Amino acid sequence: MKRLSVALAVCVALLVMGCAQAQQEKTPEQKGPIPYIWGKAYHILQETTSDESGYFSLCEGLNGKMYVGTAKYNENAFLVEFDPATEKQRIVIDTNKVCGLTATGYAAQSKIHTRNFVGPSGIIYVGSKQGYRRQGDTSEYPGGYVMTYDPKTDKAECLGMPYPGQGVIDTVADEKHGIIYVVTCEEQHWVIYDMKAKTYRDTGLLLTPYATTLIDRDGCGNALTKDFQLARYDPATERITVRSIMLDGKRLTRKDASSIPIWQVTKDGRTAWLILMNDPTLIEMDLLSPGDTVTAKSHGKMTEGKGPDCRSALDISPDGRICAIIRVNNETGFGTGYLHWLCRYDPKKDKMEQLGVLAVQNPDFFDFGPGPDGKAKPWTHGYHKLPDGTLTPLHCHMALIVAHDSTIYVTILYPYTLLRIRLPKGT
C-alpha cells in the first residue's frame, strides 16, 4: 500500500510539472500576417562571451543535454552545457584551463567555432581558434587546440595543436578507426590525428573555407576541397581520392567567397544534404557515387527572397526531413529588417515547406532596456519587434540542430541566445 501511495505521488508530481511546463511554454496568439514559429529563448552565460556572440558550435550530447561554444575575444573560449530538463547552464570546457594557457589579445584562444561533433562513445569534440587583432596588438597567434569533453566522467582534455599558426574550424572523430579529422583556418588544411600515437599529420590537401568532414557508410572521411570537389579519405588504405561533383549534369563550382557549404549526412551514411550560405538551393549528393564523378541533384530553393543567408543552420531530423534557418530581406511590407524562416524539406514526399519566421515567446528573457546612461546596452542589437509587437531575430542566427525528440535548437547573436523550438504535434 505504501509503494502504491509513493508511486501515485510521483505520478501526480510529474503531471503537475508537465502542466506547469506546458503553461509556461504556451505560445502567443498569431496577430500579424506573417506565420510565426515560436521558441523559448535562453541567454547563454554572460561571463562566457565578450560581445554576446558565438558561432556554429552547437550539438546534443547522448545524454540529451545541449552544448554551445562561445567567443570571449582576446581572453578565452568556453563550451557551455544547457540542460533542457532543468533549464540550467554550466561551463564544461574552459579552454585556458584545459590547455594550460594564459595568453591574451590576438594570441588568445578566443573562439570555439567548430561544429561540435559527438562520437558513438558520447565524447564531444571541439576546437579553438583566434579572434581579431586590435589596433596596437603585436602578439602572434600560436595556433588552435583540439579538445574533448566526456559527459560521463565530466572531464575535458586537450589533444594538442594540429597546425601551428592556424585555428581549428572543424573536428570530426572516427572512433572506430581511432582518428580525428581536423580542418584548420585560415588556410583550411585537412589534418588527421592518430588517437593512439597522439600525433597529427597534414594530408597536404586544402579545403574550402569553413569546410567540415562527413563520415560515409564505408567509414571514409569526405570533405569539399578549395575547388569544390569531393575529397574522400580511406582510413584502411590512407589514400585520398578527389572527384568533381556533377550537379544536375553540370560541374558544381564555388561562385564567390560567400559560397560557404553547410551539409549533413543521412543515417545510412550515403547521402549528403547541402545548401550554401548565400544560396538556399537544397542539394542532394550521393557520397558513394560510382565512377570518376560524384552525382548531385537540386531540389530547388528552400525559400524565396532577396539576400538569402544561412549560417550553418541545416540539420536532418530523426524522421529524415531536412530543416534549415534562412534569413531573407523583409519585403512583406510588415516591418523592416530581415526575416529568419524555418524551412523544411521532406525527401519521401518531395515537399518543401516554409514553416514560419522565428519568434520569441518569452521576450523578457533579457533586459533590452537602456543602460544607466540612457543609451542602448552594447551587443543587444540582434533582435527587433515587428509591428504586432513580436520579438524576432534581426541580424544573425548561427547554428541549428534537431534533437533526438525533434526539438529544434537555434543560436542567435546579440545577446547570445539559445532558442528552443517545440513544433506543434503533427507539424
Write the layout of secondary structure elements.
Layout: H1 2-24, E1 36-43, E2 58-60, E3 66-69, E4 78-83, E5 88-94, H2 95-99, E6 111-112, E7 117-118, E8 124-129, E9 146-150, E10 155-158, E11 167-174, E12 179-185, E13 189-194, E14 199-206, E15 214-215, E16 221-224, E17 230-234, E18 239-247, E19 250-251, E20 261-265, E21 271-276, E22 279-286, E23 293-301, E24 314-316, E25 322-329, E26 338-346, E27 351-360, E28 383-385, E29 391-393, E30 397-402, E31 408-412, E32 417-421
Parallel strand pairs: 1-27, 18-23
Antiparallel strand pairs: 1-32, 2-3, 3-4, 4-5, 6-8, 7-8, 8-9, 9-10, 11-12, 12-13, 13-14, 15-16, 16-17, 17-18, 18-19, 20-21, 21-22, 22-23, 24-25, 25-26, 26-27, 28-29, 30-31, 31-32
Overview of the structural elements:
The structure is a single chain. By secondary structure, the chain is mainly beta. Among the domains are: 32-50 and 312-427, no CATH class; 57-210, YVTN repeat-like/Quinoprotein amine dehydrogenase (Methylamine Dehydrogenase, Chain H). 7% of the residues lie in helices and 42% in strands. It has helices spanning 2-24, 95-99; strands at 36-43, 58-60, 66-69, 78-83, 88-94, 111-112, 117-118, 124-129, 146-150, 155-158, 167-174, 179-185, 189-194, 199-206, 214-215, 221-224, 230-234, 239-247, 250-251, 261-265, 271-276, 279-286, 293-301, 314-316, 322-329, 338-346, 351-360, 383-385, 391-393, 397-402, 408-412, 417-421. Strands 15, 16, 17, 18, 19, 20, 21, 22 and 23 form a nine-stranded mixed sheet that branches. A hairpin with a 2-residue loop joins β21 and β22 (279-286). The longest helix is centred in the first third of the chain and has 23 residues, at 2-24. It is globular. 42% of the residues are buried. Mean pLDDT is 93; it is low at 1-24.
